[in-house]
Amino acid sequence: MKVLISGASVAGPALAYWLARHGVTPTIVESAPAPRPGGQAIDVRGAALTVVERMGLLEEVRAARTQMLGMSMVDNAGNELMRSTEHTQSGGRLDGDDIEVLREDLTALLATRTSDVEYIFGDSIRAIHQDADGVDVTFERGAPRRFDLVVGADGLHSNVRRLAFGPEERFAQHLGSYVAVFTADNVLGLDRWQVWLNDGEAGAGIYTARDNAELRVNIGFMSGPLAYDRRDLDAQRQLIADRTAGLGWEIPRLLKAMWQAPDFYFDAMAQIHMDTWSAGRVTLVGDAAHCASPLSGQGTSLALVGAYLLADELARGFDGALVRDLDGALGRYEARMRPFAEVNQALATENPGSPASEESMERANHAITL
């Protein structure tokens, strides 16, 4: 059985790992020319810890954790309003089981577990035509190929979802803000520390990375939906610069570094809500199916758990060549995953402008049993 997976971030490689373990042949296609650098700190929590443990990655993920010592919140003049050595804004309690890790460190570890999987970088799917026996896929650059199943693991702005289900506008729910993430030198001299600033309609969070050599800058603003070119990074940088121009403290200095950052990323805080994640021989996993947004703190865990469940249900009906009752397998995957996705999506809107409560996070972390 041949499965094409679109997307090489977290859900895609995790799914490829499990499919290969079950004897299925996965291929991953990724529009970027190489693994994407940079990105924010992400969290592996609850059931997702079970998934990485079963992948044999738990100790390596723990070794790569961000090792934060605490956080401060400052006002627009840089005056410290509070500090904590018990929790951080991005990772929660420091004495808990959850693991905070940089996105590219987790994706690199997943790549080591899928070294025998075919990766196609610098290409994307142009068209999908399916029949009762398979899916004919046309690529933007490569030759057409036929697969038994196509999986969209390609994020909030999923190309597979657009081709199989329709335009993004049908499923996206804007959450009222935009954020940029980029890397800068540690010009602030922070030591395994986070600093957060919120000044009305704009705010920022800065934390160290790479043994304090770098800063990861998260900066954003409140806004309704905006029309902008997702391919024009300089226009996005200018949007951030304009909308956060009123921020003080060290933000102007960091905004200057933004213009040279090679890993600049900008996007809306949004969720995806769909009635179904499958259409024939096409299905979705991770953010493509049920993006919870970074505001939930659960996107990575949802991706890991969803990949595991999808592969598990496909494997249950796999006879060594094909999956018997593919519709049934995809339906069971969705029935198991949807309640978990929904309770985690709710975290993003529980306390607008602030993280969800520890009690809600704990319930969401363990809202599924694998």
Architecture overview:
- By secondary structure, this protein is α/β, with parallel strands linked by helices.
- The chain is built from 12 helices and 20 strands.
- The protein starts with a strand and ends in a 5-residue tail after the last helix.
- The chain has 2 domains: 2-67 and 103-171 and 271-365, 3-Layer(bba) Sandwich (FAD/NAD(P)-binding domain), CATH 3.50.50; 175-270.
- Helix 1 (11-21) runs parallel beside helix 9, helix 2 (47-54) crosses helix 9 (299-316) and helix 9 (299-316) runs antiparallel to helix 10.
- The strands form 5 sheets. The protein has a 7-stranded mixed sheet with strand order 5-4-15-16-17-14-18.
Q: Mind sketching the topology for me?
A:
Blueprint: E1 2-6, H1 11-21, E2 25-30, E3 41-44, H2 47-54, H3 58-63, E4 70-74, E5 80-84, E6 87-88, E7 92-93, E8 99-102, H4 103-113, E9 118-121, E10 125-130, E11 135-139, E12 145-147, E13 149-152, H5 159-165, E14 172-185, E15 193-199, E16 202-209, E17 214-222, H6 233-243, H7 251-258, E18 265-272, E19 278-279, E20 282-284, H8 287-290, H9 299-316, H10 326-345, H11 347-350, H12 358-365
Parallel strand pairs: 1-2, 1-13, 2-9, 4-15, 13-20
Antiparallel strand pairs: 3-8, 4-5, 6-7, 10-11, 11-12, 14-17, 14-18, 15-16, 16-17, 19-20
Helix pairs in contact: 1-9, 2-9, 9-10
DSSP E strands, number: 20
Helix content: 25-40%
CATH architecture of the largest domain: 3-Layer(bba) Sandwich
Globally, the shape reads globular
**Count of DSSP-assigned helices:** 12
Order of strands, main sheet, comes to: 5-4-15-16-17-14-18
Structural class by SSE content = alpha/beta
GO molecular function: FAD binding
Region (Disordered): 350-370
Pfam families: FAD_binding_3 (PF01494)
Biased composition (Basic and acidic residues): 360-370
